[in-house]
Specification:
The chain is of the alpha/beta class and 419 residues long. It contains 19 helices and 15 strands. The longest helix is centred in the middle third of the chain and has 21 residues.
Amino acid sequence: MSNGTPSQTALRKMSAVSASDIDTWAVPCSALVVDDDSFVRTNLCRLLAYLGVERIESAADGAAARELLRTHGPFEIMTCDLQMPGADGVELLRGIAALQPNLKVVLISSMEPKILASIGELAIAQRVKLIGSLHKPVHLAALRQVLQKNGPALAKDRDRAGDAEIEAEELKQAIAAGEIDVYVQPQLDARTHELVGVEALARWISPRRGVVAPDRFIPLAESSGLIDELTTLICEQAMRACADWRQQGLYTHVAINFSMQSLVQLDLPDRIARMSSDFGLDPTQVVIEITESAAMVKVAGTLDVLSRLCLRKFKLSLDDFGTGFSSLSQLRRIPFGELKIDRSFVAGADEASSARAIIESSVQLAHSLDMKVVAEGIETQANWDTACALGCDVVQGYWIARPMPKSELVAWVARTLSA
Ligand code: C2E
Ligand code: CA
Ligand code: CA
């Protein structure tokens, strides 16, 4: 697959709904799309992903949907086609309240509004939590309106189940049960728009809590001694995905976040080298991201491991740059190949001259040390233009793509970058 210039139409489409706009309401974390028409199914999955829904499964009929609810549930919302061969939508709705009482349903149909309304009433009588009915073909604005209207109810449900305190034991079981998954977020060359790599971001797909963000379980993993097991698992998934993409014709780099605690393990360079060679990856394809504040505070204990990772040709990346306490001499001690400017500066750079000055001097510093600069948190075209004007080499952020399941990367590249 070639990574050409991104289609301008695709990028323009992205800007139709700005990321900050989406962030102001509670986007569902998970959705089940049920429709026998594969075109409609794919379109709905794309629209939901575009609106920021992170976990999306789809089924072609009622029986498959029920199976997914049993094995991959709970989902926060379900879009349900009414006319399907075999178990149709009405049949599916009949048992839904018993299967998953909190599931919010959006009916999708090309039937007359009157029939749609009476089926809606029937569903409500069966205690289905119906949140809207949409006529085919479904447009982004209409779908967004339905989800946005129900944002507060979604947030309330999520608070009840998802926000309960996480205990180390529950996390341990989740790791053992294979519930930790890796999502990936593309990084593009700021000028040529080519894909240069992806960042692997951990997600916990919990049957009880929904999709749990890493900020909620990485610190717990660190404090409860689970972080090494978790990091190993994430490395394996990220490297396997990288090898799979290669098989599908997409050669790219993968960046993995490392906790400082893992970097005091003296055997880490050997383990990572073995793992990457097992997956047939070149070490230069693997980027190791370390948070600046942590890297600088405990620099002495990790210098050994970081230098040896570097000797083995892995690329080191200094994350969240600008938020910690770095100095030029410290930067020189660790052989970083890349610096990621924290998104707070990127967001502020359009207006604030201080943020611009920080980016400008970071770029100067990085380039003089032969390091590349990644601008994180690109949320608008203006952010991208500013990052580019200030000399950043690589851009990453919601405006380009939200983190997505790793199985979706190849299709995303084909759709967005190859036109
Ligand atoms: P990070 O390494 O700075 O990762 C970037 C975070 O910014 C991700 O949040 C990403 O989803 C989010 N992001 C990307 N683009 C945008 C944007 O345009 N706007 C905004 N507002 N946010 C954007 P996420 O996935 O929730 O991860 C949070 C943090 O958790 C990460 O920050 C990283 O420090 C940590 N983390 C994630 N995965 C792992 C992991 O596998 N291991 C370790 N040790 N830490 C991880
Ligand atoms: Ca990172
Ligand atoms: Ca970062």
